[in-house]
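Backbone-to-sequence.
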């Protein structure tokens, strides 16, 4: 059984479409935060796990099988693969 099968059992097409859009928007919030941290890592050193938590969220969402329709997953994939070394070095101090 795919994630979509279990997530959408007994849902209408409109409900499925709305849920997928909501999930995508929520994941894009993580993508945007990841990109902000990478752009200005010094601004986020007070939260050492900010990148790992958000990258984990993106990976969980990307891992949903049979879920996506025509959403552009490239920004999610790029965020999941981002180089965190500059941030990690700052946090390690």
């Amino acid at each position: 059984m795919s994630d979509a099968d279990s997530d959408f059992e007994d849902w209408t097409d409109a409900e499925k479409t709305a849920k997928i859009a909501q999930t995508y928007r929520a994941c894009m919030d993580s993508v945007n935060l990841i990109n902000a941290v990478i752009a200005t890592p010094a601004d986020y050193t007070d939260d050492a796990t900010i990148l790992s938590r958000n990258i984990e969220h993106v990976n969980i969402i990307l891992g949903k099988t049979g879920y996506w329709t025509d959403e552009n997953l490239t920004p999610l994939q790029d965020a999941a693969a981002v180089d965190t070394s500059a941030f990690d070095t700052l946090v390690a101090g």
